[in-house]
Amino acid sequence: MKDSSPCYHCGLPAVDGNTYHALVLGEQRSMCCPGCQAVAEAIVDNGLDDYYRFRTEPSVKADDNLQDTLAQLSIFDEQSIQQDFVIHQGDISEIQLSLSGISCAACGWLIEKQLSKLAGIKQVSVNVTANRALITWYTSALSLSQIMASIERIGYHASPFQQEQHEALFQKDHKTQLKRIGLAGLMTMQVMMLAIGVYFDLFGDLEPQTSSFFNWVSLVLSTPVVFYSGAGFYQSAYKALKGRTVNMDVPVSIALLATYFSGVWATVFEQGQVYFESVCMFIFLLLVSRFIEHQARHKAAQISANMLQYIPLTANLLVNDELQPTLARTLQIDDIILVKAGETIPIDGMVLRGSAQIDESLLTGEFYPIDKGVDDLVYGGTINKSGTLTIKVTSQFKYALVNQIARLQEQAMANKPKIATMADQFAQYFVMAVLVFSLGSFVFWWWQGNPDAFWIAISVLIATCPCALGLATPSALSFAMANLNKQGVLLKRSDVLEQLTQVDHIVLDKTGTLTEGKISIAAIHNISDYGDETLLRYAHSVEQFSEHPIARAFNDNPVFPNVTEFCFTLGEGVSATVNKKHVALFATHRVTSDNAIPKTLNNCSIVMQIDKQFVCGFELSDTLRPDVSEMLRRLSRKDITLLSGDNEKNVQQVADNLGISNWLAQQSPQQKLGFVQTLQKQYHKVLMIGDGINDAPVLAQADVAVTLGAGADLAKSSADIILLKNALGKLPNLFFVAHRCKQKIRQNMAWALGYNILVLPLAVSGILTPWMAVIGMSLSSLIVVVNSVRLLK
Q1: What's the average model confidence in pLDDT over 711-738?
Q2: What is the pLDDT of residue 413?
Q3: d(C-alpha 574, C-alpha 582), whole Å
Q4: What is the pLDDT of residue 360?
Q5: Which terminus in the chain has less CB density within 10 A, N or C?
Q6: How much is the pLDDT for 791?
């Protein structure tokens, strides 16, 4: 007779008999198929068999054709397939994967541990609730198919994340929550009417049979509330206990089930008190408070994460002067599209023809239309308010600005601040304390012979449930980040808000940061036989390959066609071979004493050599950003230093105009880095603002790094905060929101702890009945959420 014992991996019957086995946790375990056997062996071989110890639900049945599935994954290494969902930044790639087969928190642990063993993985973050994984890896060491195969081998299925599917899952969960709340609310009203009638003697003196009938009716009405509406609490508590920890749903579940079953006992044996109305009301109010918190946090995240919904699905592609409708996500660089007045721009690009006013409020939070004309950049998701634009596509859909914002938001929410981690840990200890107090209360009053000892213990469990404590930090952080996103301030890490409140020294770059970066040539000092126009042409031929703001000063001049061997030296200059001549441009202060410049070029910002002979120098001018003075005035309580690579004359002029007393000129990237490190050794918390490639090292070193939306890509990658509209005037608001967020967290924590400290003696002494405890606990959680929502204003 065939062995029909269940499969140890997935729990299904092993219908093929005692054929497949795997050694798990030191014992031979039956498996239902070769797929489950292969998955179990892969888990054990990687030293991850603790998964079976921690899991709270059976795994999903493994793929019977696992080897065929693994062989098919190689298609994901095709560049054409990866275009839509893999982000490439040099040798580093990033992808969001949707995961299926996840049944509990242990699944997320197993996937993270499995992937972290792969050589080439940079970062893995699995969101069990959302069934998603954010993975970053080194392309030279690892392929995408290897990552997906590693996930398949342990029994899960991965596919590229699609926002539409994620939104559909949220809507499904949203409907489920509403059904549970609706059922709980409807039944609570019925049970409460019966309870109020009995409590306030509205039915007169009830006979025992009538009272028993009312109890049976209440039991019938309460049962679906307890086992359907409240199911989520028990599942969460069970998973926590199986993982050898406790969460806030543990005391909630104990209180609910103990009150319900004591009521069942009292109803069946017709003795004792029933509190079915308290059970129903507790579940209803707790579901409502969590629904409000869930909806509010979703709304906050959607401010940036759901920007993709504003991008149109189609675009008007111009081919041979004819319009062809096409999918926006299939547009390629250099495609030409037409956007009419009233339409939404489908992708990032540069205006070739036409002029219009563009509403960029989606990206910047500013509701004043921006004038756009030829050569101006426009961004997907923004609205063309007037005029018709012919636009050349400058980036693929996945690199569009709104996509970058969505990815950065995802990264920010993956980073948990220290205060949030501490709150989570404290909440665990608090739950343990609640359980101890509840048990102690029961033992004491039972020892004293109090018939209400059980109900006093239940009141303690309900009243001191740390739900509000668990919401205190994450709710405030979510709403603060949403507020800043609406203002055009993008945070790459949520924990940066905590660090902002500690900043006491601000370090500023000059060119492109305090100034608009619209650098122009004020004068050319020619000491050669070349004509001025020829020298400008040589300069632009080299500078055309540089991303530094200074390079734009030469854009109005023509270039020579034969430019090779371009070389950029961080913080020093650029060089190239132009028409077989070696042309180099240097910052004046970077010229060595062995190669001293002529005195006539001392006041120039940039000097140029041709074949190692000085030929000219350029005096440059720039314009201060209009909001710089107001920003510095509002931040006057902090120490401010201006660090610039420009010559002393220009830096001093800017510093004097802005009233900055601390400034340093002719600073190399290494010197800027050393200055910040010195401040940090003196226990200062430093915020650095920069926008150029040469600022990347010091931005990475600073405690908080801020860059502008127009800054170089390398600067953005090193920054913690991006000002999308290059609006430095938003910086004081950033500090203000950070301090408000910290204040709200403290208020939330103080309220949550204060409420529990206040209500504990009332519950322990028996003054607080279970229904009073239900209302108090629910109101406490709602107050925390409402207080945090105020950060959106």
Answers
A1: 71
A2: 47
A3: 11
A4: 72
A5: N
A6: 81
Q: Would you say 258 and 249 are in contact if contact means Cβ atoms under 8 Å apart?
A: no
611: CB partners within 8 A, 6+ apart: 581, 582
Q: Give residue 584's pLDDT.
A: 92
Q: Indicate the SS3 state at residue 95.
A: strand
The model's pLDDT over 390-428, given as tens digits with 9 standing for 90+, comes to 999 988 776 776 666 555 555 544 544 555 555 556 666
Beta bridge partners of 127: 132
Residue 235: pLDDT over 50: yes
Rounded Cα distance between 504 and 61, Å, is 56
Question: Which structure tokens are listed for 216?
Answer: 């049976």
278 in Cβ contact with 774 (< 8 Å): yes
Residues 363 and 401: their CA atoms lie apart, in Å, by 8
- HEC assignment per residue over 602-617: CCCCEEEEECCEEEEE
Specify whether the CB–CB gap between 18 and 3 falls below 8 A: yes
3-state DSSP of 271-293: CCCCCHHHHHHHHHHHHHHHHHH
Q: Is 533 exposed, middle or buried (0-12, 13-18, 19+ CB in 10 A)?
A: exposed
Overall average pLDDT of the 124-143 stretch? 77
> Is 81:394 a contact under the CB 8 Å cutoff?
no
For the beta carbon of residue 440, count every other beta carbon within 10 angstroms: 13
Q: For the packed helices 276-305 and 401-414, what is the interaxial angle rounded to 10 degrees? A: 140
Unique residue bearing structure tokens 């509000």: 468
- Could you tell me where the beta strands, DSSP code E, fall in 20-65? 20-24, 27-31
Tell me the chain's radius of gyration from C-alpha atoms. 33
Distance, in Å, from the CA atom of 387 to the CA atom of 648, rounded to the nearest integer, reads 46
Mean pLDDT estimate for the chain: 76
Query: Do 407 and 490 touch, CB atoms closer than 8 A?
Result: no
Question: Residue 591, Cβ neighbours under 10 Å: how many?
Answer: 17
Residue type, 706: V
Strands 606-610 and 314-319: unpaired
Helix, strand or coil for residue 342?
coil
Phi–psi pair at 48, nearest 5 degrees: -115, 25
Q: How far is C-alpha 741 from the chain's CA centre?
A: 17
Q: How many helices (H) and strands (E) does the chain have?
A: 25, 29
Q: Return the pLDDT at 267.
A: 84
DSSP-derived letter for residue 568 is E
The three-state (H, E, C) secondary structure of 616-637, written as one string:
EEEEEECCECCCHHHHHHHCCC
**Single-letter code of the amino acid located at 691:** D
- What is the layout of strands, in order, in the sheet containing 581-587? 520-526, 613-621, 606-610, 581-587, 573-578, 563-569
- Give rounded-to-5 percent helix, strand, coil for the chain: 50, 20, 30
Distance from C-alpha of 419 to C-alpha of 744, rounded to nearest angstrom: 13
What pLDDT digit, counting tens, does each position of 605-625 carry?
A: 889 999 988 999 998 877 778
Q: What is the pTM of this model?
A: 0.51
Residues 137-155: what's their mean pLDDT?
A: 82
